[in-house]
Amino acid sequence: MPSFASLNLSPAMLANLGELGYAAPTAIQAASLPAVLAGRDVLAQAKTGSGKTAAFGIGLMERLDRDGQGVQALVLCPTRELAVQVADELRRVARFQPNVKVATVTGGVPIRRQEQSLTHPAHVVVGTPGRVLQLLQRGSLILDGVRTLVLDEADRMLDMGFIDQIDAIVRHVPRERQTLCFSATLPEGVRALAAAVLATPEHITVDRQHAPGVISHAFLGAAESDKGRATLTLLAQHPLESAIIFCNTKAQCRAVYAALNAAGVHSLAFHGDLDQADRTLVMVRFANQSCRVLVATDVAARGLDIQGLDAVINYDLPFEPQTYVHRVGRTGRAGATGHAFSLVTPGQGARVQAICEVLGADHQTTPAPLDIDGPSPALAPPMVTLSISGGRKAKISAGDVLGALTAKGGVAGQDVGQIDRMEQVTFVAVKRAAAEAALRILRSTPIKGRRFRVARHG
Ligand code: AMP
Fold first, then answer.
1. Residue nearest to atom 13 of ligand 1 (CA)
2. Which superfamily does 382-457 belong to?
């Protein structure tokens, strides 16, 4: 097995990776780091969860000139959520270097605030193409000193229609640079983009798909009118910690969400009509175990960096086999078997066949189970999310929230789950049984000397 020590990293970086618990490079890191560190262009096929962020992050940080002026690296990501995650991972990787500034610039946040934060020079900017271009056009982001450009999840950026923005941004970046392009899939559009912006890149492919057997694929025949009942039966028969149900349209997504909740299944809908605050709340609730089932469209789910699901249910079969691969790739990670269930209506046999060709296996379509007399799928999720109307801006820390909750015979520490601090709001997950007590305490206890509004979600 390759080791980080054999990759010519600085001693400080090696020590930091050890502290982060990164014992050995992942396959994509082992394969791409030599080229990345040598300053070469790279076109790498790798998906979320492969360690790709650290693959370019380690390279960026090792090549950073901390005394240099201006932005030295630009990372473009398809969504705000991904940009935030990438920036967090870059900060982890950069921890050993004092004063490395990583700025995030994305839509959904007032542009003036980002302009203000850019007045303190950042070494690395992570952003979504639309906002980066806007800042460039306003003259508040200068990329003349960029030495490395990273296109992260290039396929998703193209799917989301960012090609023109990417082209325009590339024109603001010096020609003499290193360009790294990471993409889960390599359709024609990504190859064309790579041909246009990369110079004689090294091609790297690892772990294109899951090893066979890690995901079980079930294709279940059901009439359109039986799909709701079939979904409830699947949820009842397979007690799932977490699942995403995919629909092809927003309207279908809303209808399935309403039907599930009417049947007592706590679920949340995730589609393009949600505003940024609602999207954030859905993601937080799903990640902190106060919602087990998400009903999502493909476009909305692109922004979700959720992996390791127990199951993906294709309420609607996707039109493209590649979409199927994207959807089910969210399940079955880290040694656990994931389940993909797809409801197939009469006349969709050709679509199943096209998917199976991509999967490289034969699958039979069997009738969907429609018996919901079994155990109830209505189990409430273990946690409930409370929101507090102050976040990083109000200087609230996770410790403040935990302290307020657990002080003087309050809630037991083990009943408090994940605490997520956003700019203007903080979310805390608490065990369902402790939720009312936690709500009372937070409403009556000042934090940082202030009373905040507190709401319960679910
Ligand atoms: P990514 O594919 O970049 O989204 O990374 C997936 C997760 O793997 C992140 O939570 C990283 O912190 C983690 N990770 C990255 N590299 C390593 C490594 N070499 N060993 C263990 N974990 C890692």
1. 51
2. RRM (RNA recognition motif) domain (3.30.70.330)
